UniProtKB/TrEMBL annotation:
<keyword id="KW-0808">Transferase</keyword>
<comment type="similarity">
    <text>Belongs to the 3-oxoacid CoA-transferase subunit B family.</text>
</comment>
<protein>
    <submittedName>
        <fullName>CoA-transferase</fullName>
    </submittedName>
</protein>
<dbReference type="InterPro" id="IPR004165">
    <property type="entry name" value="CoA_trans_fam_I"/>
</dbReference>
<dbReference type="Pfam" id="PF01144">
    <property type="entry name" value="CoA_trans"/>
</dbReference>
<dbReference type="InterPro" id="IPR037171">
    <property type="entry name" value="NagB/RpiA_transferase-like"/>
</dbReference>
<dbReference type="GO" id="GO:0008410">
    <property type="term" value="F:CoA-transferase activity"/>
</dbReference>
Amino acid sequence: MTITRAEVCAVACADSFADAGTVIASPFGTIPSIGARLARLTSAPELLLSDGEAMLIAETTPLGEESTAAVEGWLPYGKVLDLLAGGKRRVMMGASQVDRFGNQNISRIGDWAQPKVQLIGVRGAPGNSVNHTTNYWIPHHSPKIFVESVDLVAGVGHDRARQIGARYHDVQVVVTDLAVLDFQGPDCSMRLRSVHPGVSVDEVREKTGFELAVDQVAETRLPTEDELALIRDRIDPKGLRDKEVPA
């Protein structure tokens, strides 16, 4: 059975939700959304999913389809902010830049006074990264994203978290189309945990704009047959995953 890179990435994202418990999942992007749904159907049955608006839904609905599931609860925007401050979320965000300590930028590229590119602003990244577990999904691993120093800190990394005494800071992993990285290197720096099948350590190093900690690098695990069936038949029957990470 042929397993695609997108499916490997989806399972890696699902694993980042495995120990979440009873919290609301906030995945940003197609692959993280598949991962959160897969986790709820396998390793994290208490994970809460929303319809993307203000309802908590009872069923795990297919990606790209309007939910017809029973509603378990109402989640207005103000309550989301309460959850953000209280640590009851598990977030997987994107990043326009990320550095070796997990500082993330989604606000601007270039000088403060005259940016080259204006992005979406810091949004909820500061509160996410200091109040509950936050992970990152990067669909195109490149040295333009993995940089020595971010142009603006939106999501707080491990070095700054120590400086400000962020007690609940918990940035764990970065999943990309090439690899899974964690922060088990020296001084909580980024370490290459695993490479996806067909990817070499040297390829990841070449596409990273700083020196990665490299110890014993595993191969990212493949989805099981049951996980593949859930991804293909129940979660993403339209194959949206292959548009984000082409086969």
